[in-house]
Amino acid sequence: MSAPERHRSTWRFVVAYHGARFSGWQKQDRARTVQGVLEDALSRLAGEPVLTRAAGRTDAGVHARGQLVSSTFASRVPPEKMVLALGSQLPDDLSVLEAAVVDASFDAKRTSIGKRYVYRVHAAIPRDPFAGAFRWHVRGKIDVEQMARAAPALVGEHDYESFRSALCDAAHARRCLWKVEIKASLPLIEIEVRGNAFCRNMVRIIAGTLVDVGRGRFAADAIPQILAARDRTRAGITAPPEGLTLEEVYLPSDGVRAGIPDGVVFPGWPPVGVEV
Which of these CATH numbers, 2.40.30.170, 3.40.50.1950, 3.30.70.580, 3.40.50.920, describes 8-110? Predict the structure, then answer.
């Protein structure tokens, strides 16, 4: 007698990873990627090839505490045991924090409505040997007050052409950011950015530009002119990847947690028929 056909289910995963030894999220030939390692683990559990889709791609070296991933496959592992099962299959720098079977219509990229990133800077002469893998070490004085003055000009719906990589393949750079905030407890400086979508290197260029404001390379009131120029050469440097972490991905029901202000409108927001 043949084995009964296993039911295919759609899964939602919350994934964390230390990005240092990964060549980014997206699967590549001859490179170690988060997607590749995760799909290999899921395929071993499922006994068949498994494909995944993330809410967004992270660059090589970028970390995540709350990447959102969807996948549809057949598995004998029940939802309450999936995190444990994957823990036995994954390396130390990649972990599945949550696993749940969801409606078949769920798609991590299309269903999500925004993300929260935090870029961390270590502003001191000596390095921090314990936190250095998660911070950009910047020597010399940084004027945090000037950074804080500059940050609000990045909030709103803008064309962020000046703040995306020349290699970005997005059709356009029009995005909506509802929070760009500086928090500092020196030597740690945190740049928190929340928005509906991001171009390639966008948060790293925002971080590099704000640090350049803090170092006096740009005036605090220069951001509107940089935005208006729509020219990558007018913005600051691309901050290194190790300082950046994808902290959270927001779903349509996460409006309060995401802190989306009243009156903000972007594709997928406000949602129709979803309690926020």
Answer: 3.30.70.580
